[in-house]
Amino acid sequence: MTDAHIVRAAAVQISPVLFSRDGTTEKVLDAIASAAKSGAQLVVFPETLIPYYPYFSFIQPPVLMGKEHMRLYEEAVIVPSPVTDAIARAARSYGVVVVVGVNERDNGSLYNTQLVFDANGTLVLKRRKITPTYHERMVWGQGDGAGLKAIDTAIGKLGVLACWEHYNPLARYALMAQHEQIHCSQFPGSMVGQIFTDQIEVTIRHHALEAGCFVVNATGWLSPEQVAQITSDEKLQKVLTGGCNTAIISPEGNHLCPPILEGEGIAIADLDFSLITKRKRMMDSVGHYARPDLLQLQANFDTQTVLKESLEVQPAEQFLIPNLNE
User: Where is the CN hydrolase domain positioned along the sequence (predicted)?
Assistant: First the structure.
């Protein structure tokens, strides 16, 4: 990509159709179409939007959340499946790169998974949140380093992380060291109130400055009616409000369009890649400002599995049973 390269990005603040994988997927497809009509070449959706973020786990003790956990299993997304096929078709049809968060079901486990579809509809990245946060550990399994990749797409090199993964500086640095140009971040939204909104603001602007890249951040949103669907307890309802901050940030740490702090909407801005060079000329944290002779990051990008086939062939005599009578 040249310094003159410009990409139009869209960050979508959207509410799920609670308890419905298919309903939420339809909203995602409609939002892709809407963003594409505005000229967007990149469309970013919130964390685990499909079918919905497990808000129940934040307000219910583990002993009571079994029913809701099972319902999430039933509506979770298998990769690949008709859901991913539909998003791939939309990406290909409109020629846009799509980043969407899903609750992925892999046999008996759920994962917080980020999917990146290139503009030709190819699924170019499936990564799992490396460490679920606090209450989320009762819902999702852990990811691995295989997804810590800045990937080449039709619009540039993308890196993605979810929510409090941004508080893991080494995870962020792994993407920075691969020279991500656009960082796509995702948060659940509608949690914890203004303090979460403020924390997101600090987090995404700091990463843009430190990485010298654009940050396209999408958060979810719950309507008051949806909050009431999740809990009838008015005290707990207050916990499921605020905390939204859908925004697009330049490599200089500036907002490129007004952020969306409440309700549904699409933030759209043009990303002028010359700003990456402008920022990195002054401070390139993985280039001229780095000190690899003093500080280095060691990363394991292997896919982890419970079953590995041994490549070593043992000599047959090792398996002979000795004759105890001799």
Answer: 7-273
